[in-house]
Amino acid sequence: MSHVLHDIEKQVIKVLQSEPNLTEEGISQKTTLSMDQIRRGVEWLRQKKLADVTETTSISLSLGKNGLEALKNGLPERRLVTLVQDGPKTFDEIRSSLHGFDFNAAIAHAKRNDWINIEKTDTGSKISLKDPDADVPNDSDLIISKLGERTIVPTEFDNTPLAEPLKSLMERPDFIIQHEEKTKTVSLSETGKKIDLEKLDSGAIDVEADVPHVHAARIHPLNDTINEVRETFVHLGFTEIIGDLSQSSFWNFDALFTPQDHPARELQDTFYLKGLNAKQLATPTQIKNVSSAHKKGWRYYWDIQEAKKMVLRTHTTCVTIKYLADKKPDEARIFSLGRVFRNEKVSYKHLVEFNQVEGIVVGKHITLRDLMGIQKEFYRKIGLTKVKFWPTFFPYTEPSLQSMVYNERLGKWIELFGMGIFRPEVTKPLGITKPVLAWGGGIERIAMLKFGLDDVREFYNNNLSWLRTASKCQ
């Protein structure tokens, strides 16, 4: 098959046909191409299977800061031996010449080499040579001397008596530095070697050449999941409501019967908007009733100033509870979907900003069984069939449940939505007379299950290779 080649590719092939193996720098020296052009040309040829790229790593050694000091003045242990050559010395006498790290290192390595004795006396510890007349060999001195101010490859010490001392010396801080240098060598494949550049210059067109691969734009996998969740609740007969990202502590916490000394309201868990307080908190009746519920239920002084503090909402329940307080519907099926914020340490399963969906059902005869049925039907519609429920505790629902979904890939149950029936302490102060089923959870966790991810941060890493194939992961 004939090939249509760019001029850059032709220049690279011409050089490699005369010299089979060259680095990209070597190709640059033999052509008028820039390094950027050469890298592009080599990659084009590699994709066409006309060139091969071999990457090698070379390792070299040189003296670090402490190694250069040892080259000049000797290793600490060698200096210690010299100090006590003419007789025992106290620790204080030795410290006058060997300071700080050198003192400790000298004693440690001299003891390991079995060169010295340490004797405790009434006036303090003294150090002496075990055999003052014996020659004290030190392979580390020889290694330092060999390296000098040069850079050498570590293989020079392989299969020699210096191999182990070198390994030991490299463990000491800043004595020997290891350098790694990666080199790419380019060569032509068998097909590339056979290309006749003179025939290619005839202007022939390769009608069988592959067309360029085009990556069509697509919706981000997380947005795909958000849209699917929204569509699923709409199909189940729910109506979406929208609220502000910033909320007063009254609607984010107090209206949901969360005490003002609850850990979730600390700066470590919640983002407060510095210097901002809500101007219009709620109606006087709502404020009075919520205050009374807290005083009666939690037995403490309820501070309206705490309730006025503005926060980045920690859940979307604050949107739905305000909707219920204002509308007081006899029946309702609504949900709220959007970003929420938690002041948490980022990890494989936690983010400071994520997406949450939360819904409620209001009705006269609804029960916890209805809530479980709604959840099961929701999970079924998005492809999650193994579901069970565990009892748990939430400040504003009683009874409360945690839905668990089985992850086939991990072979274990995963927590998803929390749910329950709003407590009377939440509904009665706001004039809501009918039972309210409520649930909520993070959408990223659902997306992780759908796309087989173990780390939630992968959705925000902008990994194009994964994003282009994410649809195949479902």
TrEMBL record:
Localisation per UniProt entry: Cytoplasm
Main localization, broad class: cytoplasm
Record InterPro entries: aa-tRNA-synth_II, aa-tRNA-synth_II/BPL/LPL, Phe-tRNA-synth_IIc_asu, Phenylalanyl-tRNA_Synthase
An example Gene Ontology molecular-function term: metal ion binding
Alphabetical keyword list: Aminoacyl-tRNA synthetase, ATP-binding, Cytoplasm, Ligase, Magnesium, Metal-binding, Nucleotide-binding, Protein biosynthesis
SUPFAM superfamilies: Class II aaRS and biotin synthetases (SSF55681)
Annotated Aminoacyl-transfer RNA synthetases class-II family profile domain residues: 333-449
Gene3D superfamilies cross-referenced by the UniProt entry: Bira Bifunctional Protein, Domain 2 (3.30.930.10)
PANTHER family: PHENYLALANINE--TRNA LIGASE ALPHA SUBUNIT (PTHR11538:SF40), PHENYLALANYL-TRNA SYNTHETASE (PTHR11538)
Protein name: phenylalanine--tRNA ligase
Originating species: Marine Group I thaumarchaeote
